[in-house]
Design goal:
Strand content: 25-35%
Helix content: 10-25%
Distance between the termini: 47 Å
Number of strands: 10
Shape: globular
Mean pLDDT: 88
Bound molecules: calcium ion
Amino acid sequence: MFLYGCINLYNLKKIAFLVAHIHSEGSSKGVTFIIWGNKKCPKSKKMERLYYGVVAGTYYNNKGGSAEYLCLPDEPEYASKRAIGNTLTHVSRLYGTEYEFPINGVHDHGAPCALCYDADDNTQVMMPAMTSCPSGWTRDYVGFLMGPGNWGDRSPKDYICVDEAQKSSRGSYGNQNGALLYHVKATCHGIHCPPYDQARVLACVVCSR
Ligand SMILES: [Ca+2]
């Protein structure tokens, strides 16, 4: 009787584990991500582009605002038909981005972006200062680590991995200095040189599996 109870409990636990595993496998399939600096998503069998647009963010020299770059769709939809006037006070203002001295792109041009969905993957990671992915991972794109300058810009933002092509967006409006994008270099302060080299800009890679 005792043995019978044990076997049942064991089997029940095993079944519960399998059900939970199947459930988590089923529910976690697919990743969404933004490709920065390109309006095309990486090529892959089940890749879908949800929209494309332009990179935007808080003005480089504003205090406050947001610390993230956004991928704004080219064709916006407004939830309210009511306009509140052209004055930009008492709101959070967004500005298009501009490459500053890009290696492959055009100085002062805006950066495109796209929101992508890959139904084949479960997870995705961006690795700074790498161009290759670990074994078993697929390389979605290689890029340059980019972000705000830090010699007086007041708006901090998270670094992003910008596609190495550094494409220009439609309507790149010249030197307007909005949410700026600079290359990133590692200094030799607390970082080993070599192998790090403060004369070179850092790469990045986006990997999934
Ligand atoms: Ca500029």
